[in-house]
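Recap from last week: sequence in, structure out.
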Amino acid sequence: MNRFLDKIENMLGGLRDEGFLDVNSAALVPRLRERRGTVAQAPKRGVFIENETKTEVSTILQTAAERGIQLFIVCLLAFAGLRKSEIAGLRWDAVDFEAGRMSIWEQRKRNRRKKADRDEGEGTALVTDTKTEESHRELPLPPTLAAALKMVRRWQREMHLASGRRFGVKGEPPTHVVVNPSGGAVHPETVYERWADFVRTLGAAPEGSARTESAKTRADDERPPVIYLHLHAARDTCATLLALRGVLPHLIGAWLGHQPKGMIASPVTGEYIHGDWEFRVMVAEQWELIFGPIVTSCDMDKAMKSGKYQLSA
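Predicted structure tokens:
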């Protein structure tokens, strides 16, 4: 919108200079405040710096690991390109470790007809199919993501036994990857709010909001601060880093689940390219090259030992 207003202002300015107009009305229109909602946002000089973005992602994942395995897996799944509703709806029966694949076929959405009591979990969110037909997808599991999911499952089972089987669903271990304090399915808005609260502690809060106390006391932390970003912006970061490694936009779209399942012509051969499984395996390999070293640098032992539940209300 701001770019459109700038173009109109330049056009009317030229007419005013030539004497056709007395006032450039577009110059009087206030501009929208720029959003600061993505790690992958280019600096003001207009150059995207890959290393700076990876540093910010490292800060997010390393700090999340120190605060608990549940917060860590939320962040990692977000950087794997999942929406908040898909993160909340990811079930263990959709993760096949033997086949090395993860099925995104269900989401948990906010029930707009009922005021959400987010501690209840199952009764406050609508369980539906994915956002679109293209969002219903199967993804190869990169080794790093598979290892992290196995740690989450082990943590949940340990919590289930340590609580006398109260942590979970009807005396059984949790059915979902990300759960609420009782082990039930988590509300999608809780996923977003805990992400937002966490990221605010790592740097500047969004413009117009107050900085948290933990953000004010980060002076002793050697990690660089990160800009504030929304949960959905992690998908943008995932797509941007994959694109910088040469992954075709069509294949990135198939990975994220927001592109048609059609075909595009290869710019090299002119032949049509499908977003089939073999190509998704290639995308998973590139994702592993980007995020694998970052996750390896995280203190996963501390994540497992953390006694603080990060998604509690």
